Amino acid sequence: MRRLSRRDFLKLGSIISGGVALSRFAPKQALTQPSASVPGPNILIFVFDAMSAKNLSLYGYHRRTTPNLERFAQRATVYNQHYSAGNFTTPGTASLLTGLYPWTHRAINTGGPIARAVADHNLFRALGSSYYRLAFSQNFWPNYYFGQFLPEIEKILSPASFSVIDQIISVKFGADLVDSHRAFGDLLFQDGPASLVFGVFDKMLLYEAVARASAPDYPGGSNGIPHTENYPIYFQLKDVFDGVRATLESLMPPSLAYIHFWSPHAPYMPTIKFDSLFEDGWAPKPKPVHALAGSDFRSVRHMNYQRQKYDEYVANLDDEFGRLLDALDARGILDQSYVVITSDHGEFFERGVERHLTPLMYDPVVRVPLLIRAPGQRSRQDVYLPTDSVDVLPTLVHLSGAEPPDWCEGKILPAFGGVEDPERNIFMMDAKYNRAFLPLTRASFGMRKGAHKLVYYMGFKQYQKKDKFELYDLDRDPEELSDLYSESSPLARSLRDELLAKVREVSGKPAS
Amino acid sequence: MSRYFSRLPTWAQIAPVYAVIVLIVYSWTILWFFWRMPGWLYYLNAGEILMAYAYSMATNFVESLVVLSGLLILGIALPKKWFCDVFVARGAALVMAGLGYMMYLGDQFKNTVDFPKLALQAWTVAVAVVGILLIVFLAGRISIIRRVLELLADRATVFLFISIPLSTLAMLVIVARSLI
Fold this sequence. Notes:
The complex is a heterodimer.
Chain A: H1 6-23, E1 42-48, H2 67-73, E2 77-79, E3 82-83, H3 89-98, H4 102-105, H5 123-127, E4 132-137, H6 142-148, E5 155-156, H7 177-188, H8 198-212, H9 237-249, E6 255-261, H10 300-330, E7 337-342, E8 349-350, E9 353-354, H11 363-366, E10 370-373, E11 381-383, E12 387-388, H12 392-399, E13 425-430, E14 443-449, E15 452-458, E16 468-473, H13 490-506
Chain B: H1 2-5, H2 11-40, H3 46-77, H4 87-108, H5 122-141, H6 143-156, H7 160-179
């Protein structure tokens, strides 16, 4: 064999490096949609960030916040006791997308990733490449998961799509989406920003674009348009819904589209039409301030005002969503699709807590909507047994004709092939101040069983790091005002033992 | 054309000014990086944190070259006597004042809610630009300021021996990870 000369070596090196560089521009097989001879239905998942079931007229709230969801529900299956496994975006969304509880996927911190050992356990992979898989989240955090799932998603839309200006650079970094999102989105171009030259110019461009945006529908003009909080993205609801509509209309079945709207997450910014819609003087019955409410205490009056704004924003969102559904219906897309409507967590305006950054596990912050419409479904069906966000993945996999994966911690939902089990335990948890790699030492757990909900606060200094339990009967006391927990109650002891056994089982060091 | 390029400063003049740019741009990012890191330690491993830093270094490298390019263009555009002959002092002064102003602007964008109206009004920007130009003018005129700036810039060149190799390595890692 001829010895490689220096010149040959340089030639070879340049050919290889050129090939690697050009490979990026080569057409990718995965970006083309598969053409099935008999296409199955689409799966369209709409997630509304921070939408509490307690504030929806669909579920009996006295303010008429969701007339369009009610209309949609007439042709869908409505889950009346559906819970998110987490009480903020990171664990709630991760559980929805993985079918795993937060103690397993370990996306427990604000903006934290799914544990590397289980990142391939996800909806996109479970449904497989027979679907064209698209993901869009205005909330920046789920985009870390999309990056982790990347080989399984054909198209990831920028979180700033359909917004005033799409200035997100990290989406350009192809295979390294997670790290580039982390660096650009969480540091360099984040508020601050850490990039002194590009970051400051980026912010100036953004604010200039916002100032110039035409927003006649909003009370404060361009200053009153909605925006995200964990990364500055400014948008008008109608633009986002128009963009999503156009995107969905371009899909060919079978496609999976995961659409995660920022709204109705704070800041609550309804249009003029909905601003002041609920200035009705109504105030809910005050509830006692909780020991874990934290120092960021707000007055009842302030929280009632925030609740009103939230309700108005939900009504605004519902109106836009109704417009989207009508457009999809007119194009026949709804009848070709399973449509899932849900949320990653709820929202809270009571007990001294505003919004959802709380260890508390009361229904407003963990009970979320779930509606599923099968292709061609014409009548409403109601499910009253408690269900969980980890159930969505196995249900959709089952509906696609495949077996739900073994690793999944959820069950197929009743009405879509699942068995109604009144004795089943539904779990929810919060451990945002716990390190993701270590055993859980400070966390709150909720367990719903039948009509009862047991809450366990573990390791909180407000309770001298001693175990603290609360028990509610949600049939008799839906506002969770009477704590029934007593060591002398056989029911309380039985539920406590069950929950503690589960916590002992899952709170150790996670798989690495 | 060669008339214009003859106005370009020599490498011996460019290096100290570039070092000042590097010192400011990289330090600002490092400060924020360490402010952000305690939160990351909850859920990122060392490799992931290093990757975030690699992106930061690569961005800083490009930023510093952009700023340097701006100075070199000024050097070509302005009369030699005004800028090129006192490149180290006036360049360093311009970099310090200009990037200092960018730091002030960056500080105005600390949260998404407040629109930094005052800082972005035309008259406040104009006042800042006049102030910066005055500093640059004085830096070339007052010998003590000029000497101090030249001394500082000269001392800063040591950072180039760290930043350039590390940034090059960071860029290679990013290109490799993004492509493959």
